[in-house]
Write a sequence for this structure.
């Protein structure tokens, strides 16, 4: 089984980290193929960058010539999953939905701890669209930019733990979801310091993707995610010099 894990930003070191986390969660015989978009922002922290990333991720997958069995969109709260589902005949798993759905098996309510406050509405919207918001106690911001997660890992863990602890104490969350692909690898340390289950979306997405492939299941094509209708595209893809 081969699974594409697509970073939503163009920072290769984040792609590498996501790929390592995915490989660690994969079963024997599952090959993880990390992909970095060829265009877009170095980090995705708002609507404009998110919509740009959606196109970049779709194009990265379309340009991949080797066969694959599933795709993971490794951006928390980002747009584009629906477009991938239209384009592909294999399962598509978004880490936002993977983390939240997994958390619901582990406790009555969950909270998400993410990066900047401006990303909170995007995550709330994605959870609502996915039908996963009813048991979400809160979405909290650590105050860290995505790229800060790599610069000072100890400070990142401290900031995440602080908000996770507040979610447990103040919001009555019973499970924490790490709300950024760049937080992959921090699960155990956050769990040790909060005393509750902590779900990493990349790892959860890998196990869900593997299960769907083994069950022989993929996206329904009868209506919402039917393939795009054939039509003339004007100046697409854009020509670069």
């Amino acid at each position: 089984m081969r699974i594409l894990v697509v970073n939503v930003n163009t920072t290769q070191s984040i792609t590498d980290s996501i790929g390592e986390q995915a490989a660690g969660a994969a079963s024997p015989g599952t090959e993880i193929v990390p992909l970095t978009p060829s265009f877009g922002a170095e980090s995705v922290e708002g609507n404009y960058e998110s919509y740009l990333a959606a196109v970049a991720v779709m194009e990265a997958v379309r340009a991949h010539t080797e066969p694959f069995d599933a795709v993971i969109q490794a951006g928390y709260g980002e747009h584009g999953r629906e477009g991938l589902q239209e384009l592909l005949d294999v399962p598509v798993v978004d880490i936002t939905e993977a983390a939240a759905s997994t958390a619901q098996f582990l406790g009555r309510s969950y909270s998400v701890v993410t990066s900047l406050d401006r990303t909170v509405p995007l995550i709330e919207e994605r959870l609502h669209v996915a039908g996963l918001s009813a048991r979400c106690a809160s979405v909290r911001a650590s105050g860290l930019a995505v790229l800060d997660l790599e610069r000072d890992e100890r400070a990142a863990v401290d900031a995440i733990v602080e908000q996770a602890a507040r979610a447990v104490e103040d919001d009555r969350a019973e499970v924490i979801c790490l709300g950024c692909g760049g937080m992959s690898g921090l699960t155990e340390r956050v769990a040790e310091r909060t005393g509750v289950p902590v779900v990493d979306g990349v790892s959860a997405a890998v196990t869900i993707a593997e299960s769907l492939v083994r069950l022989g299941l993929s996206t329904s094509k009868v209506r919402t995610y039917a393939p795009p209708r054939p039509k003339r595209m004007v100046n697409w893809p854009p020509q670069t010099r």
About this structure: The CA atoms of residues 4 and 65 lie 12 Å apart.
